[in-house]
Amino acid sequence: DLKELERLLKADASGGGSDAAEGNAALAAGSSVKQQLREVLRKLMEAYFVPAAVHKRETRSLLGLMKVALQRHAEVFTGSSTFCARAFAHLLPLVTCASLSENVMETIAWCLCQLATHISNAGDPGAFAAFLAGTADLAEDA
């Protein structure tokens, strides 16, 4: 839920350890937090990023938390074109909601651009090409 996402975003995975054992533990904890963030984000996007529920407070809150995750925890998105493409696919339909405020639309556009950048930088040209083709198909359908 949203509280779990907030908790994970606040989690300090750096550890600050001075020896190798503490450093490895911090790295493992960071990896665990990254996986937890991906799982929680995926579940929340499936539940709240739908045009019919766009005016729910939870949807707007999740959008804000997604922006924070992209800004402060980019490692959650880095190197995973599949996760980023799924997030993009959940966000894109919200653009069709004409009654959203300008600020919300700007946040959606910013998040979409960041996700597209992560997909591009994932190092898989085939996946990026498929992503662009899929996005073009969706735009034609809209």
Series of secondary-structure elements, N-terminal to C-terminal: HHHHHH
Q: Percent range for helical residues? A: over 70%
Q: Ends: how far apart? A: 31 Å
What structural class do you assign from the helix and strand content? mainly alpha
Q: What is the strand content?
A: under 5%
Low-confidence stretches: 12-27
Q: What is the count of β-strands?
A: 0
Mean model confidence by pLDDT: 79
Total helical elements:
6
Largest sheet properties: none
The radius of gyration is 16 Å
Q: Could you say which overall geometry the principal axes of the C-alpha atoms support?
A: globular
Would you give an account of this structure?
The relative contact order is 0.11. The protein has 142 residues and is mainly alpha-helical. The two termini are 31 Å apart. The longest helix is centred in the first third of the chain and has 29 residues, at 20-48. The protein is globular. The protein has helices at residues 2-10, 20-48, 57-72, 81-91, 102-121, 125-141. Helix content is 72%, strand content 0%.
